[in-house]
User: Fold these one by one.
Assistant:
Number 1:
Amino acid sequence: MTVLRAQALGKKYGSHWALKDCDLDIPAGHVVGLVGPNGAGKTTLMNLAVGQLRPTAGDITVLGNKPGSGPAQLARVGYVAQDTPTYAGLSIADHLRLGARLNPGWDDALARNRLEQLGLGLDRKAGKLSGGQRAQLALTLGIAKRPELLVLDEPVAALDPLARREFLQGLMEAAAEQELSVLLSSHLVSDLERVCDYLIVLVDSRVRVAGEVEELLATHHRLTGPRRDR
Ligand code: ATP
């Protein structure tokens, strides 16, 4: 199954192409890293994938369907946006109740187990959590929806190095345990190299490189020859 296919995909704001001539064909089951500098078009591509934006040009399908084409498709794709709201005045338990009401496939046991492992008590108010804990709560809510694809827009950008590592480790474990496909963005390749097995490099609104990390490394080694610095 193809998790994300884009053909000549483009999105224009006024006269500016935020994403242009994007071709992708990504099999399911990967943790895909989307890397590029600020303004490269990462959020635009993610918003197209989850159906929050419509393309100006070309086509995109996610899990075989047009993004945002109906409730069934929306339930298959989880989105942890840069500004995913956790409600400061609500407890973690309230967030779980909200998740259960909004998502038909909600897995409450999974959410509770994960929060317990993280040491996050259900009665704590989201507004009292640290940045790393809030990010973990958002990740837990995304996973408990039991999507087939989880899209995360720069989830670790504002976190300290320890919280970054813990978040990415948890994401990797969840992806492996639940056979979840993941699309994860960052402007730092160092965030992605440990967790992703597929990489998309986006620069100036265009996909410059896309492929399995192993293949990209093999190509790199073929082009540059054996390393002499060892
Ligand atoms: P960042 O890492 O800063 O979040 P990004 O790679 O996610 O950047 P996008 O947010 O997709 O990049 O933006 C791509 C380009 O499109 C940028 O030049 C941005 O200014 C522009 N852009 C994004 N959203 C809009 C909008 N709603 N209206 C006009 N221009 C926009």
Note: The pocket of adenosine-5'-triphosphate is lined by residues 13, 18, 36, 38-44, 187 (CB under 6 Å).
Number 2:
Amino acid sequence: MTIVTDNQAPARPGAHQPGESLVEIRRVRKSFGNHQVLRDVSLAVPAGTVTVLLGPSGSGKSTLLRCVNHLETIDGGRIIVDGELIGYRQAGAKTHEMTPRQIAKQRRSIGMVFQKFNLFPHLTALENVCEAPIGVVRRSKSQARARAIELLDRVGLADFAGHYPAQLSGGQQQRVAIARALAMDPKLMLFDEPTSALDPELVGDVLDVMRELAREGMTMIVVTHEIGFARGVADQVVFMDGGVVVEAGTPEDVLGNPQRQRTRNFLESVK
Ligand code: ADP
Ligand code: MG
């Protein structure tokens, strides 16, 4: 199994030139059994930019996101986030899989928001946001609470800190989930169809929060069928089908002037 396809040293962690990639996905392959789901996918996401991933169901979008934080192990290629190889460490010419502890540590710097919000039902909004900072990185309770209140305010839920998930709308729960991810101070946020489980009238508030995050310079990879969001917020739109990147470019290019028939068919279908 080849994980590192060449020996170029990763960039120094933490240091970014404008336009430099925060995420580099290079020739990533992934199969489930003998079904190859990702076939040599390459993609670069500059720091502080938003990439929207589009594609029909089954095209490999979720799998790709899951590979970025090592929820799936890749079969080939490599993924680098902020200068660090994901899931593997290099010792000289050799590459070893990280220990579960190292993987967990690496994953903490990557926030992920799912279609289903996965909040803890027995914890309030505030407690959901505090849970990882207190339980995982041992921040003090008072510090974690103060930060959680700030984050709930940022997603428009300052007045709902004491509510349990069942007392919140789907859109509010999703905004709590975003606040919870932000509580770990991620350098990258991954969103997997964050609004597709929501009633249409609740979608806007969630997209507004994401828009605001983008404006503040968060690096984001977003799987969504919200073409309006892609058009307004994305720096890069990537269309995937059958485990390959069919077309990638600016929203103007990919959405406004798609070069490939498959892209045109898909855009027609989500109108
Ligand atoms: P998308 O998010 O674009 O709809 P996915 O990445 O979820 O696509 O899935 C791509 C393909 O991989 C699908 O055919 C799906 O059935 C398959 N797949 C995803 N996860 C698994 C898994 N854990 N085991 C087996 N097959 C999987
Ligand atoms: Mg998916």
Note: Residues 61-62, 192 surround magnesium ion (ligand 2) (CB under 6 Å).
